[in-house]
Design brief:
The protein is an alpha+beta fold. It has a single domain, classed as Aminopeptidase. Helices cover 35% and strands 27% of the residues. The protein contains five helices and eight strands; from the N terminus they run E-E-H-H-H-E-E-E-H-E-H-E-E. The protein has helices at 19-27, 29-34, 43-61, 106-120, 136-144; strands at 2-5, 9-12, 65-70, 76-84, 91-97, 128-131, 148-153, 162-166. It has a five-stranded antiparallel beta sheet with strand order 1-2-3-4-5, with helices on both faces. It has a three-stranded antiparallel beta sheet with strand order 6-8-7, covered by helices on one side. A hairpin with a 5-residue loop joins strand 3 and strand 4. The model has no long low-confidence stretch (mean pLDDT 93).
Length: 167
Amino acid sequence: MTIFKTKRLQLREASIQDAPFIMKLVSEPAWHENISTNSINTLEKASEYIEQKMMAMYKTFGFGLWIIEKLEDSTPVGICGLLQRETLPGIDIGYALLEKYWGNGYAFEATNGCLDYAKNKLNADKVLAITKKENLRSVNLLEKTGFKYESDFSHPGTTEKLALYST
């Protein structure tokens, strides 16, 4: 199901058919470096991730991480969406693109679309984002889309220092 379209992209809910794409995305070095070291190296694990994480969030909250596709040919280029985490005091935005699509403005376009969705469809007063401080691409994207650094942040039970941003 299509959630929204931008000038060049559409964001839609993930389905089990997206398992090969998700497996490829989460296997990239940038995913392991900046998002998670959890290994999703089989189609079965990718399907479980889609079902237990992505689709479960759609069902529970009505939003989640969506597949970013190019409008011109429906090629999936990444994921972007809104998350409700127990460790954060509000909705946050997340995104990841296949490295071969970096530098095309797709993350900026998708992130802006998600911010618009959060504010106009979900009536969110504030949207959060977390990233590693050394992930300068992500820091720059957040600042370009209007996020401001708020504070250092660590998920409970971890020592990893992240930067918390908000709109």
